[in-house]
Amino acid sequence: MDPERGTAIADIDRLTASLSAVLEDSLQDIIVEGHLAPYVLDDLPVELTYVLRCDPDELVLRLRKKGFAESKALENAASEILGICLWDAIERFGRKHVAEIDTTSRSPEHVVEEMTDILSGRLEHAVGGVDWLSAVSEQGRLSYFFR
Fold first, then answer.
1. At CB < 8 A and 24+ separation, what contacts does 21-30 make?
2. Model's pTM, two decimal places?
3. Do 145 and 77 touch, CB atoms closer than 8 A?
4. What confidence score (pLDDT) does residue 25 get?
5. How far is it, in rounded angstroms, from Cα 78 to Cα 72?
6. How many CA atoms lie less than 13 Å away from 99 in the CB half-sphere?
7. Domains parsed from the chain with CATH numbers
């Protein structure tokens, strides 16, 4: 159990086996959601991965609203600043299969519209456009997130 959230910590091996069985038996495209995707999709082909990014301050506010402890919210924001999920996705799926989307101050509808435009080819997808590390560093606020 995660003592800060009261939730179970994922069993990656078990999740990978279960997900692989579902995906191998499917004749349709499937959407897999979650930050564990790079770890649980094993060697299955992935057409496109979206990495949703968010300004670290806004992320902390969102997580507090969801009941996260302050330390856990800051830990997630620090991970966002370093681009951990983006790095993991690029490492696992390759740069040409990753689309980075900044969700800061955007409605879910607008984010989904951008995702749909990327998937349909109406909008080019890219990575590297979000740089929270430079922004937070220039503001002299790294110590706030990295205590």
1. none
2. 0.82
3. yes
4. 74
5. 10
6. 20
7. 12-145 (3.40.50.300)
For residue 28, pLDDT beyond 90: no
User: Considering Cα of 105, then 109, then 114, then 119, what sign does the dihedral take?
Assistant: positive
Q: How far apart are CA 131 and CA 129, in angstroms?
A: 7
Alpha carbon 22 to its chain's center: 22
Span 39-55, pLDDT tens digits: 777 677 788 999 999 99
**Helix, strand, coil % (nearest 5) of the chain?**
55, 10, 40
Residue 112: how many CB atoms within 10 A of its CB? 12
Whether the Cβ atoms of residue 132 and residue 55 lie closer than 8 Å to each other: yes
| 70 close to 64: Cβ distance less than 8 angstroms | yes
Strand intervals (E) in the chain:
49-53, 98-102
